[in-house]
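Q: Here's a chain of 123 amino acids. Please give me its 3D structure as tokens.
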Amino acid sequence: MKLQPDAAQNLNTVTRYGPGFIEINHLSHPTSIWVMPEGPITPWPVSRFEDLTSADFAQMASLQPQVIIFGSGHRIRFPKPELLAPLFAAKIGIETMDLQAACRTYNILMAEGRQVLGAFLID
């Protein structure tokens, strides 16, 4: 699905997504990534939901986002609470949804000026 950008020209925006990829600012990524409105797009060496670790979420927490939007792949799957412990300790919220909903939600929060981190699992 192609998404139409709004006025957020200089921010990291999800411009498209589909089976096996996500596109940020018209650059396709065939593997999992995480991204904030500003800054680099970070490759995330996780290709299966079962491979998630608390260290993944600790790295995200170190960026101090207000909230994390976790796109768990083609279907919604919730991480075990012990994996999210670094986020709870840092008082960072996380919302889990499938990839499609996560892409749309990330763009909305980014356009509102929120310090959102989109963690997109491509499975």
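Q: Can you summarize the key feature?
A: Residues 67 and 92 are 6 Å apart (CA to CA).
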